C-alpha cells in the first residue's frame, strides 16, 4: 500500500474512533508523518501507533494527537503553547489551526531536528525554544490554549495554569504516574480552573530542567 492509501485508512480509522472535527482531520491529512518518524519506521508512519524517536522519547499515536487537538477547541487567532516538541509532529498538526504555536523541548537535539522539519515544510508560524516547559514561556503569556505532550506526575503544573488566558483559556495535559495516566482538560475563567478527566493514555514523563546531552 502507498503512503497515500495508508493515510486514507488512518483518517477513516480516526473518524470511526470519534474524531469528528473536520478541520482536525484535514490537519492530520496534511502533515506527512513519515518525515517525523525515524527512517527505520518509515513503513509504519501511518499505523495508528506511537513510535520511538531519539533520546528515548516517542512520537504520539495519531489518535491521541487528533484527540488532544480536538479537545483544545482551536480557532484561527489562537496563540498556542505546546510543551514537549519531540519530533515536532503535534506542533505541525496544530500549525494550520491557529495563529502561532510556541513549542518548548528540553532536548536541544530534538528541538533542532523539529525546527528543520518545520522549515522544510514551510510551517512559519511555529516558534521553538529549548528549556524547561514546566515553567511555560512567561515572556509570551498569556496563551489561549496550552497542550502538554508529556505526563505530569500528580498535578497540572502551576506555572502553566497561570499562563493560560483568564477568559476561557483551555489547557490539556496528561496527568498520572507511569501506568495510570489520564488526559485532563482545564478551562480557566478568572481564578476558577474547571478540570475534567477525558481519556486514559500513556505518555513519557514530564521531566524538570533542560536535558544534559553529549554533543
Ligand atoms: N509532541 C511530541 C511528543 C514528544 S514525547 C511529538 O509530536 O513528537 C514528549 C516530549 O516532551 C519529549 O521529547 C520530552 O523530551 C519532552 N519533555 C519532557 N519534559 C519536558 C519539559 N519539562 N520541558 C520540555 N520538554 C519536555
Automatic annotation (TrEMBL):
Pfam family, one: PCMT
The entry's keywords: Cytoplasm, Methyltransferase, S-adenosyl-L-methionine, Transferase
Active site: 60
Annotated compartments: Cytoplasm
Record-linked HAMAP family: PIMT
Family classification: Belongs to the methyltransferase superfamily. L-isoaspartyl/D-aspartyl protein methyltransferase family.
Function, in words: Catalyzes the methyl esterification of L-isoaspartyl residues in peptides and proteins that result from spontaneous decomposition of normal L-aspartyl and L-asparaginyl residues. It plays a role in the repair and/or degradation of damaged proteins.
The protein's name: Protein-L-isoaspartate O-methyltransferase
Annotated organism of origin: Marinibaculum pumilum
Amino acid at each position: 500500500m502507498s503512503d497515500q492509501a495508508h493515510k486514507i485508512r488512518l483518517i477513516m480509522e480516526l473518524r470511526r474512533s470519534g474524531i469528528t472535527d473536520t478541520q482536525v482531520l484535514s490537519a492530520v491529512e496534511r502533515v506527512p508523518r513519515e518525515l517525523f518518524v525515524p527512517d527505520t519506521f518509515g513503513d509504519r508512519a501511518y499505523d495508528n501507533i506511537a513510535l520511538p524517536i531519539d533520546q528515548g522519547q516517542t512520537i504520539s499515536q495519531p489518535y491521541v494527537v487528533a484527540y488532544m487537538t480536538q479537545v483544545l477547541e482551536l480557532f484561527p487567532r489562537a496563540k498556542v503553547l505546546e510543551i514537549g516538541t519531540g519530533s515536532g509532529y503535534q506542533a505541525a498538526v496544530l500549525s494550520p489551526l491557529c495563529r502561532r504555536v510556541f513549542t518548548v523541548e528540553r532536548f536541544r537535539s530534538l528541538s533542532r531536528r523539529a525546527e528543520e522539519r518545520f522549515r522544510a515544510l514551510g510551517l512559519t508560524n511555529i516558534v521553538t525554544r529549548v528549556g524547561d516547559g514546566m515553567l511555560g514561556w512567561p515572556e509570551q503569556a498569556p496563551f489561549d490554549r496550552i497542550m502538554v505532550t508529556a505526563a505530569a506526575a500528580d498535578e497540572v503544573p502551576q506555572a502553566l495554569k497561570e499562563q493560560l488566558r483568564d477568559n476561557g483559556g483551555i489547557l490539556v495535559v496528561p496527568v498520572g504516574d507511569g501506568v495510570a495516566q489520564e488526559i485532563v482538560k482545564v478551562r480557566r475563567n478568572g481564578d476558577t480552573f474547571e478540570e475534567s478527566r477525558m481519556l486514559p493514555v500513556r505518555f513519557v514523563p514530564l521531566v524538570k530542567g533542560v536535558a544534559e546531552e553529549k554533543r
